[in-house]
Amino acid sequence: MVSFNALRKVNEFEWEIPRSFRAGMHVPVKIFASKRLLDAAMDDLSLEQAVNAASLPGVVGQVVVMPDVHQGYGFPIGGVAAMRYPDGVISPGAIGYDINCGVRLLASRVYFDEAKSFLRDLAVALDQSCPSGVGTKGARNMTEKELDQVCRQGSGWAFKQGYGTPQDLRRTEGEGCLPGADPGAVSSRAKERGRPQLGTLGAGNHFLEVDVVDTIFDENSAGIIGLEEGCLVVQIHCGSRGFGHQICTDYVQSFQSITKRYGIDLADRELVCAPLDSPEGKQYLSAMTCAANYAFANRQILAHNVRIAFETVFAGKVKDASLYQIYDIAHNMGKLETHIIDGKPQRVCVHRKGATRAFGPGSTEIPEEFQKIGQPVLVPGSMGTASWVLVGTIESMAISFGSCCHGAGRLMSRNKAKHSIRGDELRNNLEKRGIFVQAGSLPGLAEEAPQAYKDVDAVVQTVSEVGMARKVARLLPVAVIKG
Amino acid sequence: MNIGYEEVSHTADWSVKVWATNLPELFSECMIAMLQMMKVEYLPGQSVGQIIDLQAPDDESLLVAFLNEILFMIETRMMVPVKTDISILGDTFHGVFHCMFLREMKKEIKAVTFHNLKIEKKGELLEVVLVFDV
């Protein structure tokens, strides 16, 4: 375990584990957290996992730890590491099994006051329109040829099938399609798991959530993004389903011997990796890109189904029942980007696990209308608590490879949560507070209880204080749909 | 007890400590622990035979490959192993499984991880701590 004495305090919200902490560290670890959030991070193996990440070959700058960090497997959830291209490594375990798990936010001009009588109907309609739960399958089983097209085209494939609008694609990270996908790098097993699951939400911490825009902090940015106080919005949180899980599983397994062949010593076998310019590294990146594009297409189809449910429930009851896209961002991904490191531009593969991209103003990789304010950063809360819309900053480019936190971050183990919280009581309490809940599993609901998570407002306050992102709007939940 | 398992606290995922007297028993008990955590239920009826053959460079890799194979079998073939006969020789695994058809599973495991994975001798027993991504 990393002790408090090992940390150097930079200021109230920044802490550092220096390279000298352990032999083999190539870069320091920079932790962005208040003292309270830091204390929570020190209760598990988060910081030790960050030290392991700082020891990977080719890691540059610093390993960044977000205020919502918690222990993962191999790499901390809420961690960012940049690997020098092309001789640094890519690590499937440091990206995670749910490749391109992410969040999409849709907004409306429907005011809470005119919608509140129909929110239970809306929760039921959303639940029925988006297949969720363990082992769910989508509306149809794709052919292998169709799946290959999804891998190459991402959201664009879904758009061609009639799901969504051109604005959806434009307002998706990477326009919903990363280049370099090669379905030939994906196993037949992954394809078998992926074919029936497109257009499904899944289970665990994945959800749909209807929120009301509670407070606007930056009128100008909110106007550009398209958020209005008092209106309803919908969040979609899910990823690449069994397709991505199997791709990561395959490569973590096959890299076990490859890592040794490249003479790489690791503190944790889950961090197995290969040089980015090696045949194996290139192959994984191509396969990971397939899963990333699958996840974009998955959220695109879910967004289409959400729109139909939303418009059906509010048809004839409000003036305009349409939903338009604010943004869609990934929080488990490895991406080739250029950043200024040690004063010079450097091509790197940024591993973000439980961390979102947060590019600031001036970035040419974000939609034109966001280039003056920075890209929207979506930070979902924990069912009963607030969610946030932020924007990336120039500072985020300088201190965190253009990255930000991805949520509240777990505090309590699932085991403890399910033994100390009853799902039915939790649902009743949420409904008393005006939050309608549709849940496939009550024990599953208990594991995801708000008490099991950190205070999302404190997490957002930290990223705001350090300048990693700016607050735009705070959202409050009114209906939650969980698999 | 010479064979068994217990859940271990983990912030985000699931972790379980498993012990047994030999490697085949340990593998079998790991599978039982995983199925229990997923709350897998099967339909009544006749069992179906399945054979799994695997090769991996070490025992830990074999264990992860085996458990991921079971996850794949449940999700894609809807088959739940209820009786096992496992043999492990060097880097090869051979298992014969009597499987029933899946009725329901309440929890999803995305994958079995290698996180800090080490099969260790503890006195007369073998012990391993597994972390599942959920």
Structural descriptors:
heterodimer; A: 483 residues; alpha+beta; 8-stranded mixed β-sheet; 7-stranded mixed β-sheet; 16 helices; 19 strands; 27% strand; B: 134 residues; 5-stranded antiparallel β-sheet; 4-stranded antiparallel β-sheet; 9 strands; 25% helix; 46% strand
Structure at a glance:
The complex is a heterodimer of chains A (483) and B (134). In chain A, 33% of the residues lie in helices and 27% in strands.
Morphology of chain B: globular
Number of helices of chain A: 16
Assembly state (oligomeric): heterodimer
Strand content of chain B: over 45%
> What proportion strand of chain A?
25-35%
Task: Explain what the structure shows.
- The complex is a heterodimer of chains A (483) and B (134).
- Chain A has 483 residues and is of the alpha+beta class.
- Chain A has helices at residues 35-41, 46-53, 112-115, 119-129, 144-153, 155-160, 166-170, 188-194, 219-225, 241-261, 279-314, 394-399, 414-420, 423-432, 442-447, 456-465, and strands at residues 8-11, 14-17, 29-32, 59-73, 75-84, 89-90, 102-111, 207-216, 231-238, 274-275, 323-330, 332-341, 344-353, 355-357, 376-379, 387-392, 403-405, 436-439, 469-482.
- In chain A, the strands form four sheets. In chain A, strands 7, 8, 9, 11, 15, 16, 18 and 19 form an eight-stranded mixed beta sheet that branches. Chain A has a seven-stranded mixed beta sheet with strand order 1-2-3-4-5-13-12, with helices on both faces.
- In chain A, a hairpin with a 7-residue loop joins β15 (376-379) and β16.
- Chain B is an alpha+beta fold and 134 residues long.
- In chain B, α1 (23-37) runs parallel beside α2.
- In chain B, a hairpin with a 2-residue loop joins β5 (79-89) and β6 (92-105).
- Helices cover 25% and strands 46% of the residues of chain B.
- Chain B has helices at 23-37, 59-77; strands spanning 4-8, 14-20, 40-42, 48-55, 79-89, 92-105, 111-112, 120-122, 125-133.
- The longest helix of chain B has 19 residues, at 59-77.
- Chain B has two helices and nine strands, in the order ββαββαβββββ.
- In chain B, strands 1, 2, 7, 8 and 9 form a five-stranded antiparallel beta sheet that branches. In chain B, strands 3, 4, 5 and 6 form a four-stranded antiparallel beta sheet that branches.
- The model of chain B has no long low-confidence stretch (mean pLDDT 95).
- The interface between A and B is large, with 43 and 32 residues.
